[in-house]
Amino acid sequence: MTTVQSRPFWTIERRDAVAGYLFIAPQLIGIVVFVLIPLGLVLYYSLHEWNVLAGTFRFVGDANYQRMLNDPALPEVLGATAIFSAGLVVFNMSLALLLAVLVNQKLRGITVFRTIFFSPVVVSLVAWTIVWSFLLQANGGINGILALIGIEGPNWLRMPTTAMISVIVVQVFKNVGLNMVLFLAALQGVPRELYEAARVDGASRFKQFRRITVPLISPTILLTAIITVVGSLQVFAQIAVLTQGGPGMSTTVLVYYLYQQAFQFHRFGYGATISILLFLIVAVLTVLQWQMRRRLVFYEK
Amino acid sequence: MRSELSPRAKVALYGLLCVLSIPFLFPTWWMVTSSIKPISDIFAFPPQFIPRSADWSTYEKVFTLQPFAQQYWNSCYIAAIVTVGTMIVSSFAGYAFARIRFPGANLIFLVVLTGLLIPSEVTIVPLFQMFLKWGMVNTHWPLILVPIFGAPSVFATFVMRQFFIALPGELEEAARVDGLGRLKIFWTIALPLARPALAAVAIFTFLHSWNLYLEPIVFLTTPSNYTLPQALTQYVDVYQGPMWNIQLAAATLTAIPVLIVFIFAQRQFIEGLAHTGLKG
Lengths: 301, 280
Description:
Chain A has 13 helices and two strands, in the order H-E-E-H-H-H-H-H-H-H-H-H-H-H-H. Chain A has helices spanning about 10-45, 65-70, 75-105, 110-120, 125-135, 140-150, 160-185, 190-200, 205-215, 220-230, 235-240, 255-265, 270-295, and strands spanning about 50, 55-60. Chain B is about 70% helix and about 0% strand. Chain B has 14 helices and no strands.
């Protein structure tokens, strides 16, 4: 403390700290303004009855939550969300893994196929969805092709089961290339000596895949699963363009229901309550998956 | 990955790859070819995989029914600003979290990471109210400000942080001993080395902004302000039925430029995305 005069106030550490705060300031302020404050407001709104058209805003306590518990549509919405997410994750991950293994083979021209499988990722989402909507019409391209081989196709988007299958499949083909690339990067990181050793021991290809490949790329599988699940809960444009949540409520997933309640029926308070539910589901799923990571994922070190 | 495949296995593999390619290639082909079919051929049976005759007037109608050129420009300039803005915000923040030691850094990083947990759909209702209060509804500000500073940029910051953590620090240390300030070190030494990570951030930020759909339909109300995804769905007849050939022509105009860029730069695209912090 006696060396105050000889040490300048602006030490390297102090300069660094100031630089650090300045560097992160735009991001931190952005998160506070556009994420944390809105999240607080969602909670606040959810305790109010708010009809935009009538201009009413009053405190109602837990009425919106009571209403959600008794909402006859909600079980169906949650069911549709669960089926959609589960179907999407299972189909997406298995197709991505298959494609990654295929394009990892040493073959001439294999990068052409890699490009093809990835290409829908860069096609505008709504453009892609419109084409599929066109293809899936009763007299559209898919049924035209089926008719060529003597099969009478269903009216895909007008029946609950086929509509759900359609929105899942359209979404998977759009984005599976992304997961394929992540798996491919992981596959290329598996040391080749392991396969050599396994072959010497006479292990079949399938066994090599199950005992060597899958455990070694399990961190990537888990991370991709988290991204895909959380992403599946945010799917909106595809539903809005393909089915508008129908037929009936069969493809009304939670985000679409939230949009309908808040912006079509102008029930902002109830919309905010659904937002809270969506947030809780995403948070619980993410935490669960990080917990699973400890048990299921194999680490080299 | 392993030993040479037998010729028979190779043929089988090529066959499988070709069959699997169909659902990835055919929609784009069908979109382009159907967009120039006369309306009478659009649902023709048997399906015309190659159009019998071309009718280019659909492309004219794309521009006369809506201010499509304006909408195209809106999407382009918004995506450009969001991409550059996100690169700046996330590289500064990512660098600071990775390299600079300051009190509270870990806590602040955790706070920022909550952005990953909260999908923007959760906060759309209050965001709408906030922008309404600021007089910014039916402007492009919400589509620019929220992606650059809000939840969507957190992933970019995370990627940049992972990159800077892995980067060897000797050069920077040498510069510090020479008395260079942080800003100068960041700008002249660290950032030029971060090109691969910046490229990845640029690609997925651009695609995210280009594909945004919920936010535009919530925030924008006049057609001249619309962005492309929203505009595509507006080509409908008086009964709200889609005008298919015009929608497909507009979709083609939206999709093809990005596809062409992708084909030329596909290595950077794919490897850039594969080498983000996602590798786990």
